[in-house]
Amino acid sequence: MVLTKIKKALKKKPKFELLELPFIDVTEDPVRPELSLEFRQAYGRKIYGIKDEEGDIAAVMCFAFTHGIPKSVEEMDTMSKDAAMQAIHRAGVQGDVAIAYTVWAKKKGGGKHMVNEVYKMIKGSNHLNRLVTLSPLTDMARKFHLKNGANEVQVNLTTQNFEYDIELDEWEKFRDRAKGWFKFK
């Protein structure tokens, strides 16, 4: 039993690659299958997937970029259009809030790894400072986000919002200061 635990601990964790996807089959989306591909690609919205070691897409997440937290898909639509229009005057930099409005796993564990990879991407971004969900009003969505480290922001009429903290940790702040002292790249 101890040997099994040691072997499991030493096993290499799977690596994933975050990709922007040009298209998806929207009928595979168990959360928001009613949203068309055109909706998901319009007005500063993007579709991301994570590719696993076998080269398969393990999970998919769709985003809208806004300047606030929407309470409905309709409000997100309006807010992302507004952020896209404002981006014309800001060298293409769209909203500072990434709204994850759907996520689904195509392989076991894919959803959790998707959240982790997106978290890293947004944390490393120069213009995004918040990662917020626009989740359906279900217990499954609530449990998923709370289990993955999100905080509940608000419960709306038909949706709920959770936020993942992307603020730099103390060691990251120190690392960034040290890079300036030692001219690390």
Features:
single chain; 185 residues; alpha+beta; Aminopeptidase; eight-stranded mixed beta sheet
Chain-averaged pLDDT: 85
**End-to-end separation:** 45 Å
How many strand units?
Answer: 8
Low-confidence stretches: none
Assigned CATH superfamily:
Gcn5-related N-acetyltransferase (GNAT)
> Which CATH class?
Alpha Beta
How much is the radius of gyration in Å? 18 Å
| CATH topology assignment | Aminopeptidase
Range of helix content? 25-40%
Question: Main sheet, how many strands, which sense, barrel?
Answer: 8 strands, mixed
Strand fraction band?
25-35%
The total tally of domains equals 1
Brief summary of the model shown:
35% of the residues lie in helices and 25% in strands.
Q: Could you characterize the architecture of this molecule?
A:
The protein is α+β, with helices and mostly antiparallel strands and 185 residues long. The chain has a single domain, classed as Gcn5-related N-acetyltransferase (GNAT) (Aminopeptidase). The chain is 35% helix and 25% strand. The protein contains six helices and eight strands; from the N terminus they run αβαββαβαββαββα. It has helices spanning 2-10, 37-41, 73-87, 110-123, 139-147, 170-182; strands at 17-20, 45-51, 57-66, 97-105, 130-133, 135-136, 151-155, 159-164. Strands 1, 2, 3, 4, 5, 6, 7 and 8 form an eight-stranded mixed sheet that branches. Strand 2 and strand 3 form a beta hairpin. The longest helix has 15 residues, at 73-87. It is globular and about 60 Å long. The mean pLDDT is 85.
